[in-house]
Amino acid sequence: MSDINQLRNRIDEITIEMIKMLKMRTDISKEIGEIKKNIGKGVTDETREDNLRTKVITLCNELNFDESIATKFLNFLLNESIKVQSDNKQTHLSIFLKAKSMEREGKKIIHMEVGEPDFSPPQIVKKALEEVFDKGFLKYGNAKGLPSFRDALAKYSSDKFGVTVTQDNIIVSPGARFSIFTTITTLLNPGDELIIIEPAWPAYKECALNSGIKVRTITTTLEGKWEPAIEQIQKVINANTKMIILNYPNNPTGKILPEKLQDEIVNVAIKNNIYILSDEIYSQYAFKKWKSILCYNYDKSIVTQSFSKSHAMTGFRIGYAIASPEIIEKLSKLEALCLTNVSEPIQYIAMKALEADVSNNTNTVQTRLNVLIEKAREMNLDFVTPDGAMYLFARVNQEGFNGVQFANNLLEKGLAVAPGEGFGEFKSFIRISACQNEKILMEGMNILSNMMRDKQ
């Protein structure tokens, strides 16, 4: 026992030293974060991370140590650095909350920072709200969702996407965001890596970071029409890569990938046996040919959908995921732990909403986007005309432009827009939402135009 006690004591000493070194490393990361903030540099530096990763792998070879253990530990360290350097980072949500606070104080704000349609849900939703009590949908239920609702979703998805979906492929969630969170948390382990193509909705990265998952970023450009090169994706895949997230039509750019490029990305995922998490919440707002990931029949794909955008039901918090029964079973265990089940009354209302024709919503948003596009061209903003979704992601060509500062100054003028920084390293960009009526949009764009002129 003396030998084992000595070894245990040695392990304890090493652990304590590691904690001390982790504290030193965290303090240095905070200092670096402050310097980055002062010089306007982004938090994540993929090139530097790759260089450090190469050094770690080389050292593992020299020490004859398991590379996967070392790189997972490295991913933990890198994530901790990102966390301490990302404090107070402003996104569309922080602008939205600040705008709401100003409204409570009596300030009029035009909301062009969030994707919340101003039109009402279908009339059938109002009727369903009135009848849900008498229908008896008031009890605890299945964590995967009401069987009748899942059947309806399966039929709806099968018809819409031209694939075969059954209720065993469906899990209902309180908004698509929760399906994204449960997918990342359930299917991936701390130290695993997932690939995100930016610009991207910030919740993907935040969910991963809070789950101990390392994000590998693929950065696209306006000049490249927001299309990733297949070589970019292939380059970052390694033994720890477990998932790639796709979001088309894209938030914030409205991009729809060319079918050939999407096929290539899916083939890379299949070849490397990694999950595809496809957020297709904006599929109702595809203004050109678009192909669901469901069409590939890949058993490691997970598609998320929601009623928030398609049916203008943001406050109802109802969405769903489509995947293999094996994946759905895993997701349901976490959902049962966290929620018991999604509200039965809301599920019933959403089920009735499936009967509504919401095609006019698509036309409404496209018309509003056209208003934004015309005005943005007059203002000499740089952008790629969106293929779908409900946003214009535009670059402001002014020297030293800072989207966060600009967005906060705009609030004082009565307009809320989303700073590009929330979607990646896009400080010179802003995201403008087309969710208000044409008159309000024009009023907002005039405020934006005046603010830009004042800044020149």
Overall description:
With 456 residues, this protein is of the alpha/beta class. It folds into three domains: 14-85, Chorismate Mutase Domain, subunit A, CATH 1.20.59.10; 92-119 and 359-455, Alpha-Beta Complex (Aspartate Aminotransferase, domain 1); 139-353, Type I PLP-dependent aspartate aminotransferase-like (Major domain) (Aspartate Aminotransferase, domain 2). The chain has 16 helices and eleven strands. The protein has helices at residues 2-39, 46-63, 67-85, 92-104, 123-135, 147-161, 176-187, 202-210, 230-236, 259-271, 307-310, 325-339, 344-353, 359-378, 403-413, 438-455, and strands at residues 110-112, 170-173, 193-198, 214-219, 241-246, 275-279, 301-306, 319-322, 391-395, 415-419, 429-433. Helix 2 (46-63) packs antiparallel against helix 3 (67-85) and helix 7 (176-187) runs parallel beside helix 8. The model has no long low-confidence stretch (mean pLDDT 94).
- Give the termini distance in whole angstroms: 76 Å
**Multimeric organization:** single chain
Q: Which fold name is given in CATH as the topology of the largest domain?
A: Aspartate Aminotransferase, domain 2
CATH architecture of the largest domain: 3-Layer(aba) Sandwich
CATH superfamily of the largest domain: Type I PLP-dependent aspartate aminotransferase-like (Major domain)
Beta strand count: 11
CATH secondary-structure class of the largest domain:
Alpha Beta
Number of folding domains? 3
Order of helices and strands: HHHHEHHEHEHEHEHEEHEHHHEHEEH
Helix content: 40-55%
Number of helices: 16
Low-confidence stretches: none
Strand content is 5-15%
Report the principal-axis shape: globular
The Cα radius of gyration reads: 24 Å
Give a quick account of the main beta sheet: strands, pairing sense, barrel closure: 7 strands, mixed
